[in-house]
Amino acid sequence: xxxxxxxxxxxxxxxxxxxxxxxxxxxxxxxxxxxxxxxxxxxxxxxxxxxxxxxxxxxxxxxxxxxxxxxxxxxxxxxxxxxxxxxxxxxxxxxxxxxxxxxxxxxxxxxxxxxxxxxxxxxxxxxxxxxxxxxxxxxxxxxxxxxxxxxxxxxxxxxxxxxxxxxxxxxxxxxxxxxxxxxxxxxxxxxxxxxxxxxxxxxxxxxxxxxxxxxxxxxxxxxxxxxxxxxxxxxxxxxxxxxxxxxxxxxxxxxxxxxxxxxxxxxxxxxxxxxxxxxxxxxxxxxxxxxxxxxxxxxxxxxxxxxxxxxxxxxxxxxxxxxxxxxxxxxxxxxxxxxxxxxxxxx
Length: 347
Description:
- The chain has 347 residues and is of the alpha+beta class.
- It has helices at residues 3-12, 92-107, 130-140, 197-215, 249-256, 267-277, 327-342, and strands at residues 16-21, 27-33, 38-39, 47-51, 62-64, 68-73, 82-85, 113-124, 145-151, 155-161, 164-169, 172-183, 220-223, 227-231, 234-244, 264-265, 288-292, 296-301, 305-309, 312-321, 345-346.
- It has 7 helices and 21 strands.
- The longest helix has 19 residues, at 197-215.
- The model has no long low-confidence stretch (mean pLDDT 93).
């Protein structure tokens, strides 16, 4: 059965389908379920997990279990880009209004950092075929985790993310703090790039939050020094954090998500401000996804992503706002973060 027929079979049965490729690999893996996916609730389950930014009845955390699964090598050639239209200034007024509301909270010291997200609509000239788009995303983003999934409750989503939420091998775990964004520049030594104070503060806030959350459950926590991390045309600051713990992957994921990299600090107040202030819901953007099993797992933060409905793709991006942030600079940062997904269309 071809992948296209497998998808149709899963859809006809009200099931689920996921396909993914880890960074710097040529192997793609697919998982198909022929019954309705259940909620992810424990480490005993095996399958592809998809979690929203804010879980509710209409946006559940689901696990697509493998009634059928397999691997194939990534084709080296890409298919033609879909012709599409997009207003790249769409949503600027709403973004600036939300920025002003967040900025006020920051200057009142209610928040130290908050992440402001936005959407970008793209309208293709024909129905978007999921598999060719996924393969093009793999070829265009070799350093990212690329995944695509469908369930009746979520619809189609495509993600090309650089950020690990949790990686597990038995009782050993790995996560990372990623924040700060600059265009990658091949003419400089990126390892010694002089990051601005704003970017360093933003990245340190993420690291501090993760370490604090892990100290109560980790038997040992090892934190690397921040380093530049290049993914495609963008460069970030990244800290790797490794720890051992007898806690479950499920419990750890619930404890870490959402990190300040997608939310802010203090975490609970930033979370509430986002839900009350952002004009559009995030849905599965800035949630997490990845394959889990009873003893191993690799979950990624759902960034650089799009939701697909027929001919329309809704792209998502966001950036951290600090008291010294300037609205035009932050808008341009979201534009840079949208480029990997926009690059899959001929605009």
